[in-house]
């Protein structure tokens, strides 16, 4: 049995993770850790921590997990360079510990990223649209940034130039965010959960690749996959696709 501590257990993703761990026959819930709980005490006896908190202070939380020798499966997005550096520094002192930073745990979303990167080699134009509930703190989403980065890398490798765009005047933000040359647009709308589409265009045709998560239960197969595999994957890994 793998002992799992859930950090951020009171949130929507945290509650779904607690339910999924408790329902799994090969996992046991060692602790549900909230904002004001003692993190080090809560990690006692845990093999893996699933971190589903907001972005504020998440680097300290993950570094503490590593320092305690607890693998960390992290769904928090909004990472910065200094935060990643802090986690890498902790891992240098605990090289057998694993950390997975996954912007999305839905298997369909991971496949969308892979399909989009492959398709983007063959189309002149590509843009990303992500749609989320209005309580989401970061824009664009971590999933959309990760998607755009994979698309940009695939296009560079294939020698594909930038998407054509003759815009010379626009309101601030009208063309979305620029992620390594790929435009990313964010929608925040009541009733949504997590949705993403990649629009690809060529002469006389368009391809749309879209993924929709209608319920947070869609993320749980990926979370459990990561919990079960992370002990065999020491170091820092960014993206669930590396586990598939």
UniProtKB/TrEMBL annotation:
(S)-2,3,4,5-tetrahydrodipicolinate binds at residues 133, 142-143. The keyword Ion transport does not apply. Signal peptide: none annotated. The keyword NAD applies. It is found in: Cytoplasm. Pfam families: DapB_C, DapB_N. The active site is at 132 (proton donor/acceptor), 136 (proton donor). Residues 3-105 form the Dihydrodipicolinate reductase N-terminal domain. Catalyzes the conversion of 4-hydroxy-tetrahydrodipicolinate (HTPA) to tetrahydrodipicolinate. Belongs to the DapB family. This is 4-hydroxy-tetrahydrodipicolinate reductase. The lineage of its organism: Bacteria, Bacillati, Actinomycetota, Actinomycetes, Kineosporiales. The gene is dapB.
């Amino acid at each position: 049995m793998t002992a799992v501590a859930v950090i951020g257990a009171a949130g929507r993703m945290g509650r779904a993770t607690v339910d999924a761990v408790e329902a799994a026959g090969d996992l046991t819930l060692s602790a549900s850790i909230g904002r004001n709980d003692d993190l080090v005490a809560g990690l006692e006896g845990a093999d893996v921590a699933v971190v589903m908190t907001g972005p504020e202070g998440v680097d300290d939380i993950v570094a503490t997990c590593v320092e305690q020798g607890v693998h960390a499966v992290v769904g928090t997005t909004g990472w910065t360079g200094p935060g990643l550096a802090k986690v890498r520094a902790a891992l240098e002192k605990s090289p057998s510990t694993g950390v997975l930073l996954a912007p999305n745990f839905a298997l369909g979303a991971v496949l969308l990223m892979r399909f989009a990167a492959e398709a983007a080699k063959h189309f002149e134009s590509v843009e990303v649209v992500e749609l989320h509930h209005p309580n989401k703190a970061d824009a664009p989403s971590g999933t959309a940034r990760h998607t755009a980065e994979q698309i940009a890398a695939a296009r560079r490798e294939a020698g594909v130039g930038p998407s054509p765009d003759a815009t010379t005047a626009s309101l601030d933000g009208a063309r979305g965010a620029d992620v390594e040359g790929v435009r990313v647009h964010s929608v925040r709308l009541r009733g949504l959960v997590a949705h993403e589409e990649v629009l690809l265009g060529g002469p006389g045709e368009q391809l749309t690749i879209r993924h929709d998560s209608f319920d947070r239960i869609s993320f749980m197969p990926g979370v459990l996959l990561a919990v079960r595999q992370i002990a065999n994957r020491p170091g820092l890994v960014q993206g669930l696709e590396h586990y598939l």
